[in-house]
Design brief:
With about 140 residues, the chain is mainly beta. Helices cover about 10% and strands about 50% of the residues.
Length: about 140
């Protein structure tokens, strides 16, 4: 089984292109998610992985309209690998998440009122006081 589930923030606005298919034009969105690593990191070690993603069709069109740097997304998809030879003749290997489904993790209201969360230990964070109940996944 090849299934990936990620929650992270877009590192920049998505790159949108249109591919010609037998049925007409299809949107293709390329973006990178910064996905936090769990646990304590050794000093000088990265605390996030930067994972390349690609979405097609309606999902890409939604990203074109609403996607932007810093947006928190949950994506599911499958890992795809490939390779190509660059202009210098070096073989380059690629790994992407081919997005099957995507959800916005934060509401616009919560994002606008966003304050930094404080880590209170054991994997829990202190939720800022100004977040309304509808911005939480539970009540």
């Amino acid at each position: 089984m090849n299934k990936a589930i990620l929650i992270g923030r877009m590192t920049r606005d998505p790159e949108i292109r249109y591919a010609t298919t037998k049925d007409g034009q299809m949107a293709v969105a390329r973006f990178t998610l910064a996905v936090d690593r769990r646990g304590k990191q050794a000093e000088g070690q990265p605390t996030a992985d930067f994972i390349s993603c690609v979405a097609f069709g309606k999902t890409a069109e939604v990203l074109e309209k609403y996607g932007r740097q810093g947006l928190k997304l949950a994506v599911t998809g499958r890992i795809t690998t490939g390779s190509y030879t660059n202009r210098q003749g070096v073989k380059v290997y690629t790994t992407d998440i081919n997005v099957d489904a995507m959800e916005f993790v934060e509401s616009k209201k919560a994002e606008d009122n966003q304050q930094p969360a404080q880590d209170i230990g054991n994997g829990f964070i202190q939720v800022p006081d100004n977040i309304e109940d509808e911005g939480l996944p539970f009540v």
